[in-house]
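Ligand: 2-acetamido-2-deoxy-beta-D-glucopyranose. Inputs:
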Amino acid sequence: MKPNGIKDPFLGSDYSSNSKHKSWSKLLRLLLVLLIISIVGLIYREEVSCWMFREGNHNSGRFKASGADIVESEQGVVAADDGRCSEIGASMLRQGGHAVDAAVATALCLGVVNPMASGIGGGSFMIVRSSATSQTQAFDMRETAPLAASQDMYENNPGANYAGALSMGVPGEIAGLHEAWLKHGRLAWRTLFQPAIKLAKEGFVVAPYLGRHIAKSGGRILNDRGLQEVFAPNGKLLKPGDKCYNEKLAQSLEAVAEQGPQALYNGTVGEMLVKDVSKAGGILTMEDLRNYKVNVVDAVSVNVMGYTISGMPPPSCGTAGMAMVLNILDSYGSSDSAKGNLGLHRIIEALKHMFAARMNLGDPNFVNISSVLSEMLSLSFAKQIQQKIFDNTTFPPDYYMNRYNNCG
Ligand SMILES: *[C@@H]1O[C@H](CO)[C@@H](O)[C@H](O)[C@H]1NC(C)=O
Ligand SMILES: *[C@@H]1O[C@H](CO)[C@@H](O)[C@H](O)[C@H]1NC(C)=O
Ligand SMILES: *[C@@H]1O[C@H](CO)[C@@H](O)[C@H](O)[C@H]1NC(C)=O
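Predicted complex:
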């Protein structure tokens, strides 16, 4: 999940041509946007954890909201990786909704227009800061492993952890969005669903981003009746600019809008899901769905470059990872250090080290990660890493402490 401008601020004229621009605050803003989007946007397994860089070199495909790239408002702003969804979120604010109402409607919209990246079958993170209490809460609605999952379930089946029914977790998004809405929402639950239902039912234009994924997954789509109905309705894969209809998703959204999360977690939508998953060789059960719990904890707060950043605690690595990268760049001691092509090189190298370090993290429910976490946040560690970054070369993978070598 990447915002429109992921490439531009790194490579574009902002850095090289206008010396009045404060590159640091730009970088920080960009990374904050990444963080926020990683929170609102939801994410299939690695996609969130590996940040958004897997496909960060293609940014031309997003739908932009009309008008300028920079939006200012005294009242509120919604930023999603598809302009149509940002607009839907903003419309909730205009109706008197809370930021959480906007986030819910935006996330549901993203699940319709970017179904390869997020959706009600997946999981998500959300950070909410209350202006009234200054309390910042983190909603962990990440997928969890089904009860029948086992440590070695992928051992003889590499790839099954990534694609297919065995790779899926117990979906958390609907439960988490509902939990956040219960605490903060002002609009009716069903109101938040209407724009997404309309898009799914009446059709939406395939953006280049989705179009690329359809093309890439062409074989799989054509081999699956359900996927084919949506993404290749006439036996031909949809292309950017074509209209896509997702009637089944509209029906599921309608059921959850009217009956609440129970429709998925203890009702007909869940039953159909379990049936489909089991037919496809998966292990999800109704018990898994009934047992799903959202974790609500305090957000983590990190101080970086004089700013306090609130973000998602582990199992998300976003906040610690971002802090580590910013601290590495900051340790050059100059606001020019991330400028231009050399700056880009340093950012990439810092990211490689961060990806390696984050492989030592784990789910805090199962692993004690406190020392890894404090190392990732420490200024002296950042300095050590910075000294391992050379301006004239890159290194083979081993150099980046790559213990597992599976995030590349
Ligand atoms: C599931 O629904 C049944 C009624 O259909 C109800 O008795 C039960 O308490 C529900 N379970 C959960 C976990 O909500
Ligand atoms: C986790 O490890 C740290 C030291 O690395 C220790 O101080 C702390 O007590 C441990 N926490 C738990 C819950 O075991
Ligand atoms: C690269 O830079 C390092 C330190 O700045 C220097 O020692 C090394 O000789 C340089 N390597 C090349 C090939 O220029």
